[in-house]
Design goal:
Helix content: over 70%
Number of strands: 0
Radius of gyration: 19 Å
Distance between the termini: 37 Å
Oligomer: single chain
Strand content: under 5%
Structural class: mainly alpha
Shape: elongated
Number of helices: 6
Largest sheet: none
Length: 217
């Protein structure tokens, strides 16, 4: 019975790792759609978000089933409940990639961002994809030290977010209010993507240690 229970926990963990893989791909593809004005790619990202949502429901259903059947306590209970919270945050990461794809679709056939923001948006995508991959690895290995590092890595996204704002408020900005609003929202989506990765990381620390990172002595 205990072996079966831990096999079920491993399946939940595998689903969470797969979710991080899918949201990383979604963010990369959404960015490509945005920068290349690729309507079909944008549509595919929007449609593929259903797969991430389905995995989130699968994690929740599996976790609730384990709670009902096994009535876990102590560390096992912490693992089941924490998994549900992590699935929610990772799903939101997928939603944010979908939002970027929707901007690409809305602005088609024009490119979603002006030329002077292409480099910083590309850097934001690379950083976000790295965070998704690192989050998946930390979940897979239950690595609290790697999870703590995710918050530090997220600082790079925050810096890029500020760089976008600096460009928007510069007197040389010549693309009008609509483009500025788009850029503000897009940058915020990347920044929030990183915030959700940090939230997952905090839960990994809690899962392993029983304490959140800011409670560590």
């Amino acid at each position: 019975m205990r072996d079966a229970f831990h096999e079920d926990l491993d399946k939940i963990s595998d689903d969470l790792v797969e979710m991080t893989r899918l949201v990383g791909i979604a963010m990369t593809r959404a960015t490509d759609a945005l920068l290349q004005a690729d309507l079909s790619l944008a549509e595919s990202v929007i449609a593929a978000d259903d797969d991430i949502d389905q995995l989130r429901r699968q994690v929740d259903d599996h976790a609730i089933d384990l709670l009902a059947r096994q009535q876990p306590v102590a560390t096992d209970l912490r693992m089941v409940v924490t998994a549900m919270h992590m699935a929610s945050d990772i799903e939101r990461m997928g939603d944010l990639a979908r939002h970027i794809a929707k901007v690409a679709r809305m602005r088609y056939p024009e490119h979603g961002v002006p030329d002077e923001l292409r480099e910083v948006i590309t850097d934001m995508e690379r950083t976000a994809a790295h965070l998704a991959a690192k989050t998946g690895e930390a979940i897979a290995h239950k690595d609290a030290l790697a999870a703590v590092e995710i918050e530090k890595d997220d600082d790079a996204l925050d810096q890029l977010h500020r760089k976008v704002f600096a460009t928007l408020v510069d007197h040389s900005w010549a693309h009008g209010t609509e483009a500025a609003v788009d850029a503000t929202l897009i940058s915020r989506y990347y920044e929030r993507f990183g915030d959700h990765a940090v939230a997952v990381a905090a839960r990994i620390v809690y899962l392993v240690t029983g304490r959140y990172a800011d409670q560590q002595s």
